[in-house]
Amino acid sequence: MPTLDTSAPIASTPASPTTTLSVQRPVSITPIADGATRIAGYGSYLVDTDTVGDWSNYETLIYRNTDSGSKLIIELQNDVQVPVFSLGYSEQSSPIEGLRFLSEVTQDVRVIAVTALGGWEIDLLPDAFLWNQQIDAGNLPQAGEFMIFSSSGLAFVGSEQNPKAQGIGDLRVYNACHSPCSEENTTWVFKLGSTCSDSPNVSVREVGSEDFQQVTFSTKSETDQKVLSVEVGSYDWLQLLTPCEWSATPTVD
Hints:
Number of domains: 2
CATH architecture of the largest domain: Sandwich
C-alpha cells in the first residue's frame, strides 16, 4: 500500500484540543486504491464521515494501533453522537488490530470517535475489496478451503497447502468451503497467544439470520496457550472478538 500522504487536508478535530500531541499530528485521509480510504492519526480525535467520501460505499473496517502497548477504542456515532457501534481494546500491552464488517445499523454513522494514546490507522473498504485483492494477486481458493477475514485481509485456510491462518485481533470466518468439499459442520480450533489472558467473545450468524448470537465453546490449556473449539454449521458466519494473537484451524466433522 502507498505511503500515507501527511499533507492531505485535515478533516477532523482533536477530541481534546489541549492535547499537544494531537495538535502536532493531525489526521490524514488518503485514498488507498479501488475506492478504499485510510484514516491515520495520533491521539484522540473526532472524524466527520463527510470527509471520507460516501459512507454507504464502505462495507469493511480494518483498524490497528501503530504504537504497541497503547489503547485504541473506536466508536461510530450518529448525528447526535450516540454510539451505534464500538470496537477496539484498552489497557493492552500488545498491538491492537481487528476487522469488523459494517452493517445496515452503521449507515446512520456521522462521526468516528477515536480514543487513543498513540498512533492509529483505520482502513475503510468497499464491497468485495478484499476478495478482489486476492484474485488480482493470483491467489485463488483451493478445494476444501474456507475464507477468514482479519486485519491481515482475506486468507484461504483449510487445505493441505494452507492448513491454518494466523493473525491478531477481531476476525470473521465464512464457513462455506470451496468445492468440492463436505457440507458437514466444521469445528474451528483457535489457539490464542501465550501471553493472552482475554476471554474472547464468540458468536455465530446462522443462514437466514441478520444477527450474531453468542455461543458457548470448549476451552483448554495447551503449552501455556488457551485453545478454543467452536462447531459451526455450513454457510454460517463465525465472529471471534479478541485483542490477542491467534491461529485458526478448521476441521470438518
